[in-house]
């Protein structure tokens, strides 16, 4: 069993209440499981296929879930990049291998299932792209309408294509993501639509399974987990899940939770480095990594706890560093990710160069979305295909000059 509780004042609410923040103090809510009443062993989990639903005892859904077979993503050993950085135990968990190409699917399988469980008839979100693609797909699977608000002109092509093709009503707002999120929150409360941004604590329950899988695949708790941070839901979710594993006695320590932001959009980094009690919004966020072009992270309060309670850190990377790591992952490891995802590995590169972390650490970087999400940014970085006459001579001349 579980209840909703406020992370700030501790007020408790019934699981069926349609609320997104604490009605008493306005702070964030979390799903509190009665962990002492849960009887499952790690062996039980290990007998099931690796996926979000392997961990169903720690998820709030009691109906047959709305699923597209999410989770079970690969954990890759970054052998070449690790060798170059002097990090023998560097790994990437490729969340781009989820059904719609990002980690949002872990959240949406649970979030849309909860919408159905709670009797909601429609769903909505604001999005820098991936949330909308995922919500649209899971709403289609559930057979309910979805509305998505996007910052006009600032969403990667592949993500808009997904939201449109899966049948969502796509509305482009002439302002940034933070404004779109404020608008959709009001819309949902006033119109009785179920809000599925990461301020919804049920959605984050699905995302916590990234940490569970990483430990199951690695065979031990990593020393550090590194995530790109935008709205700050994912880092908060992974931390919450690992705390639950610790309470259950399945693990005996937590990884240092490490958040990486783009230099043009780094309010969490500023709060951590400045020792601030809360995240101060960045009013004009800007970065090529449009997925994390977010100035007022809605889960800032949870993210600060995750980082501080685990002795983690936060760092920022420039757009050049992000794109350079996107190319390195693609060309040295065969791993295709979108720019925001490369930020986690770029962040580790920077932290190691600054001498801020130990080279013996076992590090899992979460790479959050697939390369194909943002083809335009890829094409801009790569040479054009060589066009030739259809002759053997022309072909051989190009091939010879390629080695
Ligand atoms: C590809 C990608 N990476 C990272 C993030 C950041 O995740 P979060 O908002 O949970 O911090 C997002 C979305 O925000 C995303 O779409
Ligand atoms: N990158 C996100 C931004 C919205 O974050 P959410 O986790 O609150 O949905 C996106 O893909 O839209």
Automatic annotation (TrEMBL):
Residues 66-369 form the Tryptophan synthase beta chain-like PALP domain. GO terms for biological process: isoleucine biosynthetic process; L-serine catabolic process; L-threonine catabolic process; threonine biosynthetic process. The keyword Transcription regulation does not apply. It comes from the Archaea. Its EC number is 4.2.3.1. It is an enzyme of class 4 (lyase). One of its GO terms (molecular function) is L-serine ammonia-lyase activity. It holds the Pfam family PALP. Pathway: Amino-acid biosynthesis; L-threonine biosynthesis; L-threonine from L-aspartate: step 5/5. Gene3D superfamilies: 3.40.50.1100. Its cofactor is pyridoxal 5'-phosphate. Catalyzes the gamma-elimination of phosphate from L-phosphohomoserine and the beta-addition of water to produce L-threonine. This is Threonine synthase. It comes from Methanofollis fontis.
């Amino acid at each position: 069993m579980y209840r909703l509780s406020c992370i700030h004042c501790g007020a408790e609410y019934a699981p069926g209440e349609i609320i997104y923040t604490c009605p008493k103090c306005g702070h964030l809510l979390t799903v509190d499981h009665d962990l002492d009443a849960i009887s499952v062993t790690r062996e039980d989990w290990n007998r099931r296929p690796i996926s979000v639903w392997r961990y169903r005892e720690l998820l709030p859904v009691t109906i047959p879930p709305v699923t597209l077979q999410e989770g079970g993503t690969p954990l890759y050993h970054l052998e070449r990049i690790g060798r170059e950085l002097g990090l023998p135990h560097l790994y990437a968990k490729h969340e781009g291998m989820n059904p719609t190409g990002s980690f949002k699917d872990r959240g949406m399988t649970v979030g849309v299932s909860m919408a159905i469980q709670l009797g909601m008839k429609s769903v909505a979100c604001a999005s820098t792209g991936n949330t909308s693609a995922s919500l649209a797909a899971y709403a289609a699977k559930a057979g309910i309408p979805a509305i998505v608000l996007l910052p006009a002109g600032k969403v990667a092509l592949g993500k808009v294509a997904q939201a449109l093709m899966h049948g969502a009503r796509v509305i482009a707002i002439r302002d940034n993501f933070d404004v779109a999120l404020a608008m959709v929150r009001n819309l949902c409360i006033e119109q009785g639509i179920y809000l599925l941004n990461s301020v919804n604590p049920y959605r984050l329950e699905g995302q916590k399974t990234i940490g569970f899988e990483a430990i199951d695949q690695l065979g031990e708790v990593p020393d550090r987990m590194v995530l790109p941070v935008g709205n700050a839901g994912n880092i908060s979710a992974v931390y919450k899940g690992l705390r639950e594993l610790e309470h259950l006695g399945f693990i005996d320590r937590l990884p240092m939770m490490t958040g990486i932001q783009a230099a043009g959009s780094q309010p969490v980094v500023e709060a951590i480095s400045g020792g601030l009690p809360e995240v101060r919004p960045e009013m004009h966020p800007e970065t090529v990594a449009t997925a994390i072009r977010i100035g007022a992270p809605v889960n800032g309060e949870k993210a600060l706890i995750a980082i501080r309670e685990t002795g983690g850190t936060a760092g920022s990377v420039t757009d050049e560093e992000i794109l350079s790591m996107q190319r390195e992952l693609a060309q040295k490891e065969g791993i295709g990710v979108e720019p925001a995802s490369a930020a986690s590995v770029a962040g580790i590169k920077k932290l190691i160069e600054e001498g801020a972390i130990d080279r013996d650490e076992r590090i899992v970087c979460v790479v959050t979305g697939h390369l194909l999400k943002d083809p335009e940014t890829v094409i801009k970085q790569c040479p054009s295909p060589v066009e030739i006459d259809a002759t053997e001579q022309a072909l051989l001349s190009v091939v010879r000059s390629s080695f």
